[in-house]
Specification:
By secondary structure, this protein is α+β, with helices and mostly antiparallel strands. It has twelve helices and 24 strands. The chain has helices at 147-160, 179-201, 215-222, 236-249, 266-269, 272-279, 316-338, 354-368, 397-401, 417-432, 446-454, 456-466, and strands spanning 9-15, 19-26, 29-37, 47-56, 61-65, 72-75, 101-108, 117-119, 124-125, 129-132, 138-140, 167-170, 207-210, 228-233, 257-259, 283-285, 291-296, 300-306, 342-347, 375-380, 385-390, 440-444, 470-474, 483-487. Strands 4, 5, 6, 7, 8 and 13 form a six-stranded antiparallel sheet that branches. Helix 7 (316-338) runs parallel beside helix 8 (354-368), helix 10 (417-432) crosses helix 11 (446-454) and helix 11 crosses helix 12 (456-466). This is Ribonuclease G. Its cofactor is Mg(2+).
Length: 488
Amino acid sequence: MNYKSTQYEDILISTTCFETRVAILENSIIQELHIEHNMQRNIVGNIFIGKVIRVLPGLQSAFIDIGLDKAAFIHISDFRENKHENTMTPSIEKFIFPGETILVQVIKDQIGTKGARVSTQISIAGRMLVYLPFDNCLGVSQKIKSEIDREKIKTRVQSLITNNRGGFIIRTQAEEATDEEISADLKYLNTLWENIIGTAKSNRSPSLIYKDLDLPHKTLRDMVTQKTRAINIDSGHVANNLLNWAKIFNPSITEKIHYYDKETSIFEAANIDQEINTALSKKVELKSGGYLIIEETEALTSIDVNTGGFVGGKNFKDTIFRTNLEATQAIARQLRLRNLGGIIIVDFIDMDDQDHKKAVLKELQKSISKDRTKITLSEFSQLGLVEMTRKRTRESLTNQLCEPCNICQSRGVIKTSRTICYEILREIVKESKQFNPKEFRIIASQKIIDMFLEESQYLTIIEDQIKKPISLIVENGYYQEQYDIALL
């Protein structure tokens, strides 16, 4: 294949008995990482028969039992009937009531303590089309920008839809597809929906009636583009399965599917594991010497841009501008790699020049345009901040691979050894007023004991004050904030 453009993609699929990992590389640099644990499969796209367990009119929402450990959540905006309502403030009680059986599809995975979010607006993705069985529209993917191209593909697909009920959204892959391929996709989606309806009729709530494709097959369906150069898989079994699937549903990509059988692991050879570790840290180094600080919270994600050691501009104003420009590409990459969602606040280095601000914003818009996930971008605020929202459908990389720190109690910092020492001394004074032991014994880590020895004069003062001896014992198994005070 001849690649006239310098932009190309490689897809790496690594599978084990416990997980599947997919890396999307652009020009050999990782941009996206998808992980699916076999014990915790992504459930976005799955369809359930659920039972309404609680309706909350004040929040215009309801909780639905779909058979998972947490009840699913649905908002009034997620009802397909509501899309055709003329009234400004419809009540959720008009659509749903406790005890009702309802067909829903997961649109957002369980994240943290929140249950999955579901919708009655069912959609089933094929390779060329997305089928909307309860709608009657014919839409075109927003990624097809040209109005002429949009009308052209819409007219072509419309001519192929004959006896189909429901609506469709035309995907970008349909632009390069033949009429035969689009017709085959139509037939596949119709057959799939008939099977789903049949399963729903023979099952009671709560139950799963349709499971979306697993990650490897979903990768072939949703992530392979014209830029994809190769799809390398480190499992012969999975490679054969994907090849057989591609022969039926996407024959044009069969030559791109390869079995990777080298001794060095596929992720190690591409330095992916090191990139994952970097993506779990707060600091991201820029090539110029500047850096980003990325802080994730439950409410939002903040990204702070800093010049660091960069002094490459003609003057300080130019240095700031160059650093901010470079940061835009790094920010776009980190959004995808870390799968950051929700509200994102970017604090660029302050710029007075309005042309510089426009150039930075334009470069950021260009960089995020490659993202498969919907992003909205605001102008610079009066405080010099840029606000973005990125659609959140699954856990971020950090939430997927990490858990709250037991040592710092999720604060992200721990108390200094001096702070802990003074805390212990205050507690001893307090205990001395309630108890009358012969001796107080402090059991703590080596660093805490060293601090006590360094500031031994305070121990002496407290001993004189409480008129009791205080002894010190090192416990190597204790972390810095952990200690015990024994009353002997």
